[in-house]
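---------- Forwarded message ----------

FYI, see the RNF41 ligase record below. Original note from H. follows.
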Amino acid sequence: MGYDIERFVGYVNEGLLCSICRDVLEDPLQAPCEHAFCTACIHGWLVHHSNCPEDRQVIDVSLLRPLYRYMKNDLNRLQLHCRNREYGCEMVCSLESIDRHERECEYSQIPCSNAGCTVQVERRNLDGHLAVCEYRSRECPNGCGYTILSAEDTQHNCVAELRTELELLRSEMICRVEEAKHEMESRLDSQRRHMVQKESILQNEIEELKSQMSRMMSDVRSLMAAERQHRQELEQAELEKREL
């Protein structure tokens, strides 16, 4: 939807009106046939139609383009009243700067910043409302340090609040201890599994070394037996030589 034409000061050129809502263009787009529309208006129109609402020429979202620069400049120079005029704001400014003004306008209706409060007040009256808002919070005047809402003053009990806070802290501490315990147990289980795997690997290596040692001993015994046989053969040969 466009800007309400009743807000504008002086004459507004027909070419600066949206062809759909007939208000002054807001965030304008232009079709190839040069008819202009508010972005929201033409997008909504093209959901159910495929032509220009003025001359029925076929158009598509991809064919829409920004407004011509000279038309954009004419649009931005238009003068209009602040939307908070009914609340007392008398500001008149250009369309180009109206959004910036209205974001800061003292007559704008804004929500109370206190959680739970649904009241909306003018920006200029916000401080006064916050001073009396029943949802405003403050620290307990009795020194317990608890933050209370003004509406809870009569129900506030320092001892009960501190007891509740203590129970919450105790519960939180128990939860943290349990979490730390589970994490430690998980780490110990992981280390235990790692040690078991390591032990299994070392045991296999030891068994392999024993097997190699056994083969080496067998080879040594075979060599020693061969050496004895060789010596006996030499002695026999020496004896036969002497006899000859």
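H. also flagged this: Helices lie at 39-48, 69-77, 95-104, 126-132, 158-243.
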